[in-house]
Design a protein that fits this description.
globular; Rossmann fold; nine-stranded mixed beta sheet; 11% strand; 17 helices; disordered C terminus; disordered N terminus; alpha/beta; 409 residues
Length: 409
């Protein structure tokens, strides 16, 4: 892509591009290639040069940071994975040593959800934890405002460039972030609008930059669940605030809890999480809430099997068959999706055998020789639930759909 860009951009623009690349503080060859990728498809001549000149002035004036992978700041920003080719930041860059919490949720939040986000953000400020979110309406906005109102610094990861703020109604909020010691961070140059793909990229960036991500309130289909999926893939500790059973507003956050994601049942647990973030004991919190010993898993499995025994029937092969239909989830064919292998394939077979909770599934798959623990099972259940492959059943059980999208059926 860079080679093609070098043939398309005129020499005057290239000289300006080199000045911009040199101003980023890294090696020119390392920085120039990603910049070329951005400008290779741009209009030639004056229009392209105007954008570059504006970029150069903003960088020189300190109002914009363009961070390439050679910068120390790029590695300081990331908590998981390698830095992206380019990052754009406006405001004060976050401190690398301070713990960070990401707070996300639905745009159409209840007043209780908004208050929970504000309260959590204010407590984070008191604990000297940075508050990060996605700048969206609803829960995200409440988290940013709760942080600012408590005198803290907040960072918004945006799906658009800073000159095209999304949502527009939050332009004043983003200015407060930048002037209040915080920052706006993104993957797109200042003039770029938000696109469908940029929301996914924003969520992945947020999940990779924080030490923990909390889904405060989210219905099924909420973008906050995409952020949760990004956290799982990045290995970022994930938490959820479950709400009233049967509430559409909380259906997604409740589903995360049912899948084994650590549930913050009260604001007291919010404080415990923040305290452990401050002293670096987050793994202890996650481990205590999500991972049980093999003996405990076996005990839970035996208890569940005993409880379910009276409800089972005998199928044509002479062994117990689970009441999938009675649970509203028809029995799935035993074919394993083509994209699953190893431990994940064993987990799918365990799901097809009968509905179960995460701990039981871990024990069941482990009995076939697969190496699985409840934490890994919970992560897979969250992903498959969001993707619509499996069903969440009453009592915290999971099962597979007969009409799930599976290759090789």
């Amino acid at each position: 892509m860079a080679t093609e860009g070098r043939t398309e951009i005129d020499e005057a623009t290239r000289r300006l591009l080199r000045r911009v690349a040199a101003g980023l503080g890294g090696a020119e060859d390392e920085e120039e290639a990603p910049l070329l990728a951005y400008f290779a498809a741009a209009s030639q001549g004056a229009a392209c040069r105007r954008r570059l000149q504006a970029l150069e002035l903003a960088v020189a004036g300190g109002t914009l940071h363009v961070i390439g992978p050679a910068h120390g700041a790029a590695h300081a920003l990331m908590r998981a994975g390698p830095p992206p080719a380019l990052l754009f930041a406006s405001g004060t860059l976050p401190e690398s040593g301070r713990p960070r919490i990401g707070i996300v949720g639905t745009r159409r939040a209840s007043e209780a959800g908004l208050e929970r986000a504000r309260s959590m953000a204010a407590k984070a400020v008191a604990a000297r934890v940075e508050v990060w979110s996605g700048g969206a309406a609803g829960i995200d906005t409440a988290a940013h405002e709760g942080c600012l109102n408590a005198g803290g610094r907040s960072v918004a990861c945006l799906p658009s460039g800073f000159d095209r703020p999304y949502p527009r109604d939050n332009a004043a909020l983003f200015e407060r972030l930048r002037t209040g010691g915080g920052a706006c961070l993104g993957l797109r140059p200042p003039w770029s609008p938000a696109t469908r793909s940029s929301f996914h990229a924003r969520n992945a960036l947020l999940a990779a930059c924080v030490d923990a991500l909390v889904v405060v309130e989210a219905p099924i289909g909420s973008g906050a669940l995409d952020a949760a999926r990004a956290a799982i893939r990045a290995g970022t500790p994930l938490f959820t605030c479950p709400g009233q059973a049967g509430s559409e507003r909380h259906a997604g956050s409740n589903a995360l809890a049912e899948a084994g994601v650590t549930a913050l049942q009260s604001e007291v647990m919010d404080s415990i999480l923040l305290d452990d973030l401050t002293v670096g004991k987050l793994e202890r919190v996650v481990g205590r809430a999500r991972v049980r010993s093999h003996a405990s898993a076996r005990s839970a499995a035996n208890s569940l099997e005993s409880h379910a025994g009276s409800q089972r029937t005998i199928d044509g092969r002479g062994r117990h068959s689970p009441p999938y239909a009675a649970l509203g989830c028809p029995r799935n064919a035993e074919a394993v999706p083509a994209d699953l292998e190893g431990a994940d394939a064993a987990l799918w077979k365990a799901l097809a055998e009968s509905p179960a909770d995460p701990v039981t599934l871990a024990w069941r798959a482990g009995s076939t020789g697969a190496s699985l623990d409840p934490a890994h099972v919970a992560e897979r259940l969250v992903l498959w639930s969001i993707e619509g492959r499996i069903a969440r059943l009453p009592g915290g059980l999971f099962g597979v759909y007969t009409n799930a999208s599976v290759e090789g059926r």
